[in-house]
Amino acid sequence: MNNLFLVQLSLLVLFTLTGCTANTQHNMADDDEIYNNHVISAEERSDAIHADDQVAPETVIETVEETPPEEKSELTLIKEIFLNSFGLFDLLPDDFDVNELYLEHRAMYENAVTLAERYIVLQNFVWHFGDGHSGVRFPQSLTRYYSPIQARYIDGMIVVIGSDSGSTKLLPGDVIVSINDMEALDYLQTYHYQLSHPQPYLAGTYRLVGRFFLSDVTSREVRVVARTPGGEFVSDTLIYVSTQPYFDRVLPNRNYRNLNDYPEFQFSTFYAQKHENNILRIRVDSFSNENFPSELRGFLTSEDFSGDSVVIDARGHSGGNDLNGLALLSHFIDLNLLNHNTNIARSGGHYSMGTNVWGQFWMQTTNNGSAGLFHVPVVILTDHRSGSAGENFVSAAKGIDRFTIIGTTTAGVTGQLAFHDLPSGGLLFLTTLRAITSEGYDISRRGITPDIWVEQSFTDLLAGIDTQLKAAIIYLMN
User: Fold this and answer.
1) Which parts of 267-329 are beta strand (E)?
2) CA-based, 20 to 30 A from 326: which of 98, 254, 291, 400?
């Protein structure tokens, strides 16, 4: 094993984190079409081999033992699936060379010693496609390792938001300034820019922070230096552990003022709370639960609901079923007035004609029309973690009277996912289509830009103030 491959592999092991997020979720309403990534069966192969055999009775045939075909590596399988069905293929840079990328990773894949190291190579190979919606999930048999801190990219800094007191000296509010003796942002940007990422810089950096501190690493020690809110510097070696840490030290809740001052309503599929001036906040983290439409309707038609304006909090929305997004919007607007997304699918290396992604769901959604609507102004909060079905939801309301989008650009990671079981027990999930808005805007890799740009302030964060929610409430009050 030559030194170059060892260096490359060790860097990959150090840098790599799991993809989606975190979270990575998927659009369940778009999962009907799934490509098969398995080779032809032995029976079909036998039929094909002997289909043209027309042997006369007197002919003597010498029996030759058939050599089984060489088993493809999982890296090769992923490359073939990518070439066949990756929906964002034509959005890759002109100089993107999948064969060169494959050869580079094949060398590292062949030099990997353990299954975990091979999966780190697979994850990085897919990460180079530049799509936060696609990724590789580790087999259940592999041990996962966790960082003793939680960190977020906030206000241009990598900020600790939670830590395990038994494992690290770092405290919530500390800003990480160096990683492994390299300036922290340079460390991440070097890795960020070597990838083919036309995504918004903030979204890409945000994900890299997530990958780095919530990792499946096998090299489990990372040296960091952090600056405290008081300006002092503290150094520590983060040791990744195989059990989920308990973050007993966390920043104050990022909420506008004190949430204990306001009535709250907790449901299994969403969370609601009333603020001053009779403003109702509805927090929705996912559209995956099939009970969401009925729970929401029950709340909105109950005595508990009496909002003069509404904040729909879709920050960090992980996706799910587009039908649930429509069900939410249907309480505030006639669905016929929404924007339409067009999906352009790719299979067999070719793109198909576009289809109206919303139209196929409308027949399954109760449209309140102009009757039974809540005629109130609505603010939708977004950030760089709002993706998949949550992003389609934002796209449908963007620019429509009564809806105002406040926050930061969404993730740019929507599109139908296809799932492929890998032979060793892992899972490949790959975007198979592009989503185009009714105005011709390509959501993929670009995201939805808010009407009013507001980022979380570091100063507010330390004080427990949610900058974006505060901006939404002030907007509605005015």
Assistant:
1) 271-275, 279-283, 309-313
2) 254
- Domain limits, the chain: 1-36+72-140+252-478, 149-250
Q: Per-residue pLDDT for the chain (478 aa), expressed as one digit of tens each?
A: 444 444 344 434 333 433 333 333 333 333 333 333 333 333 433 333 233 333 333 333 344 455 445 578 999 999 999 999 998 888 888 888 999 999 999 999 999 888 888 888 898 888 888 787 888 888 888 777 777 888 888 888 889 988 888 889 999 999 999 988 888 877 766 654 444 333 444 455 555 565 555 444 445 677 889 999 999 999 998 887 777 777 888 877 555 444 555 667 888 889 888 887 889 899 999 998 889 988 988 888 887 677 789 999 999 898 888 888 888 998 888 888 887 777 787 877 777 756 555 554 544 455 555 556 788 999 999 998 888 888 888 998 998 888 999 999 898 888 788 899 999 999 999 988 888 887 788 888 788 999 999 998 899 888 888 899 999 999 999 8
- As given in the structure block, the two tokens for residue 276 are 């001053």
Q: Would you identify the CATH topology of the domain 1-36+72-140+252-478?
A: 2-enoyl-CoA Hydratase; Chain A, domain 1 (3.90.226)
**Relative orientation angle of helices 115-127 and 3-15, to the nearest 10 degrees:** 80
Amino acid at residue number 108: M
Rounded-to-integer distance, Cα 478 and Cα 476, Å: 5
132 and 413 in contact (C-beta within 8 Å)?
yes
Residue entry with tokens 């600790």: 160
Q: What is d(CA 150, CA 15) in angstroms, rounded to the nearest whole number?
A: 16
Tokens of 30: 């778009």
CATH superfamily of domain region 149-250: PDZ domain (2.30.42.10)
CA–CA separation, 421 and 38 (whole Å): 9
Q: What angle, 0 to 180 degrees and rounded to 10, lies between the N-to-C axes of helices 322-329 and 389-397? A: 30
Structure tokens at 433: 């289509």
What tokens appear for 248 in the block?
């007993």
End-to-end CA distance of the chain: 67
266 burial (CB, 10 Å; 0-12 / 13-18 / 19+) is exposed
DSSP string, 247-259: --EEPPP--SS-G
Please choose, from the candidates 316, 329, 241, 323, the residue with its C-alpha nearest in 3D space to the C-alpha of residue 284.
316
